[in-house]
Amino acid sequence: MAEAAERLGADRTMVSNIEAARTGLSEDRVRQIASFYRCSDHALIDALAGMTGARRGRLWWDEYRGKVPGGFLDICELEHFAVSLRTSQTTHLPGLFQTEDHARAIFSLAVPKPRPLELELRLAQRMARQTVLDRPDPPQYTGIIHEAALRIQFGGPKTTRAQLEYLAEASERERVTLLVIPFSAGGIFGDGQSILYAKGPVPQLDTVQLDSALGPVFVDAPTPLTNYAALLDNMEQMAMPAVASRELILAIAREL
Q1: Average pLDDT of the chain to the nearest whole number
Q2: Do residue 66 and residue 47 come from a single domain?
Q3: What is the C-alpha separation between 178 and 160, in angstroms, rounded?
Q4: pLDDT of 109 higher than 70
Q5: Containing domain of residue 31, as a range?
Q6: Whether residue 84 has pLDDT greater than 90
Q7: The total number of structural domains that make up the chain
Q8: Most buried in the list 3, 159, 188, 245, measured by CB within 10 Å?
Q9: 51 against 221, higher pLDDT
Q10: Distance between the two ends of the chain, CA-based, in angstroms?
Q11: pLDDT in tens, 126-170
């Protein structure tokens, strides 16, 4: 750390703050550090430098900094820079396609129960996340949803019906694929954990986000990434085709 600080013309505190993500980096600084560490992967360096360009100004989620848990904002940044997103859900529907009433019902069940202002901030941030799919170059999105998640009535029948109809409509978007694993498929791979695999501009920036009772967990080590990709491949093969999945979503909605 002392050598790194010396080469950067800074002190150890600055290096520590960079490593802990408390201090941002300019494109020049990224390239300077890469040179110091003799990184020869120019695609990786360019990808990292490109992220600093997008970070020069405030991004929409910065207004929630200090108002919602930091992990929520990390998910926003992960989705923003991803070139594709693939997720599997067994008890919840994908956050990027939740209606406001559905999301409110979910947040209301958190332990400890959020205060009214905290709930509204989390809800607003959840709705704003969905804009990542509205931009001119949205990431390719594949959602694998177990039938159980479609049948859990968060907020009651009326809210669930509206949510499922919205989900079916969203499944027709150009860069969105939603696939349902029916009960008839039998047991599923994995332990039922919600998984988000965000593919970065280069493979070294691929990241998996997992839900936990203590907040989001992020994984970027090569071996776990390979295993999670294989798990999602297996679950995708178990799922029904997109059209049949949409029909099942609407059929469940009509039952309510």
Answers
A1: 93
A2: no
A3: 17
A4: yes
A5: 2-54
A6: yes
A7: 2
A8: 245
A9: 221
A10: 60
A11: 999 999 999 999 999 999 999 999 999 999 999 999 999 999 999
Query: What DSSP assignment string belongs to the chain?
Result: -HHHHHHHTS-HHHHHHHHTTSS---HHHHHHHHHHTT---HHHHHHHHHHHHHTSS--GGGGGBTTB-HHHHHHHHHHHH-SEEEEEESSS--GGG--HHHHHHHHHT-SSPPPHHHHHHHHHHHHHHGGGGTSSSPPEEEEEEEHHHHH--TT-HHHHHHHHHHHHHHTTSTTEEEEEE-GGG-S-SSSS--EEEEE-SSGGG-EEEE--TTS-EEE--HHHHHHHHHHHHHHHHHSPPHHHHHHHHHHHHHH-
Residues 200 and 222 in one domain: yes
Q: For strands 140-146 and 84-89, give the pairing.
A: parallel
